[in-house]
Amino acid sequence: MNPKFETHCPQLAKLLPSLIADDKQHALLLNSLSMMESVGARKIAAYVDPIHVDQITLQHAAEEMRHAYYLKRQILKLGQNLTDYSPNNLLAPRVSYRYLHRLDWACSRHLKSLGYTGRMLKHGCYLLVTYLIEVRAMKLYHTYQDALTRAGSRVHVRSIIKEEEGHLNNMSEQLQAFDSNWHEHIDSLMPIERQLFDGWIKHIHHAISN
């Protein structure tokens, strides 16, 4: 079972109404989220062993890339067409790009301090990073969808929310098999993820205020 967590991001909720009301800025947000999903998919692809790979991991990689594509398609509903992930087509590009990499580095450092090496280190990082990201994604996309619904926007992310729920359940099961004390790892790493997310929100706010 997953621990209970809030499906709401108060900091993001404050920014969304005015951001959604501006089609250009809204498109930049969608493109930034698409880029972050794409980074996640490529990191999973890099983790996958060429021989020893299970169906769940392949499904996860495929769905993360589908999310990147889906978010790109939503941009067209706003009458915008952002063809790539160049800095001018993103909100807070540097922080958005580095968010997942920095979390991955923090998880690796944590597991190395506990003596993990080799394939077990790589596997543990994949599980921990993915779990932390899925918890954040549930909060972010629920908050985003609530704001979209209130605004009467044609954009929606309901299908992503459903798949993220499945990912979170899968990660919980795999983490339990990896280490029965996995909750202790999450408790140690969650403040780091929260700090990274808070920094991302701060930079997003700065980007849309200028």
Can you put this structure into words, describing what you see?
The chain has 210 residues and is mainly alpha-helical. It has one domain. 78% of the residues lie in helices and 0% in strands. The chain contains seven helices and no strands. The chain has helices spanning 10-21, 23-47, 55-76, 93-113, 118-151, 158-178, 182-209. Helix 4 (93-113) packs antiparallel against helix 5 (118-151), helix 5 (118-151) runs antiparallel to helix 6 (158-178) and helix 5 packs across helix 7 (182-209). The protein is globular and about 50 Å long. 36% of the residues are buried. The mean pLDDT is 92.
What is the secondary structure topology, with strand pairs?
Layout: H1 10-21, H2 23-47, H3 55-76, H4 93-113, H5 118-151, H6 158-178, H7 182-209
Helix pairs in contact: 1-5, 1-7, 2-3, 2-4, 3-6, 4-5, 4-7, 5-6, 5-7
- Give the beta-strand count: 0
Largest sheet: none
- CA-based shape: globular
Which percent range describes the beta-strand content? Answer: under 5%
Distance, first to last CA? 43 Å
Give the domain tally: 1
Q: Specify Rg, calculated over alpha carbons.
A: 17 Å
pLDDT averaged over residues: 92
Q: Count helical runs.
A: 7
